[in-house]
TrEMBL record:
Gene3D superfamilies: dinb family like domain
Full protein name: Putative damage-inducible protein DinB
Source organism, top-level taxon: Bacteria
InterPro entries: DinB/YfiT-like, MST-like
Length: 176
């Protein structure tokens, strides 16, 4: 794994704009996820330290599909099958990463989905509701973009915490 140019910092303490705060923290956790993988061998990326059995690469794949499901299928309303929206699931009902799927490809897919998610949400007011026709069929079901972004943010925060534990068990690394 290569080092990113410069790790992102948390948004400044003085930031009061709620949308900028959510966007800033979401990018911070996207960056933190990838930084926490640095230094792990391919074997460590593909094996689990946790009783749940999740591997670090499966966590990346899961968060890629969280972004896809909520921003593309959800907010944009892109029609697709639920199978496509939820992604490949393995025998243990976890996000599947094939043994021959290159680590670089999993990370590139995540990076591209994050770029697409940012593009979808750019310059859209937080109060705008998700489009109908994809994940949501009625206006009552359709959450606001602000709700979606906050939901995606909390998914990252939770799973980066899982990765903290996994990483500490793998090689003793703690913190950012």
């Amino acid at each position: 794994m290569t080092n990113p140019a410069t790790p992102l910092d948390e948004p400044p303490h003085s930031l009061a704009d709620q949308r900028a705060l959510i966007d800033g923290y979401l990018d911070y956790y996207r960056d933190t996820l990838i930084r926490k993988l640095e230094g792990l061998s391919e074997q460590e990326l593909r094996s689990s330290q946790l009783p749940s059995g999740w591997t670090p690469l499966q966590l990346v794949k899961h968060l890629t599909y969280v972004e896809f499901r909520w921003l593309v299928w959800g907010f944009q309303g892109e029609p697709m099958s639920e199978e496509r929206a939820w992604g490949d699931r393995g025998p243990e009902d976890r996000w599947y990463v094939a043994d021959d799927e290159p680590v670089a490809a999993v990370l590139a897919e995540h990076r591209q989905q994050c770029i697409r998610s940012r593009e979808i949400a750019a310059n859209i007011p937080a109060e705008r509701r998700a489009s109908l026709g994809g994940r949501f069929s009625t206006q009552e079901q359709a959450p606001t973009l602000g709700w979606i972004l906050f939901h995606v943010f909390q998914e990252y925060a939770r799973h980066v915490g899982h990765l903290d534990v996994s990483r500490e068990l793998a090689d003793g690394a703690v913190g950012e």
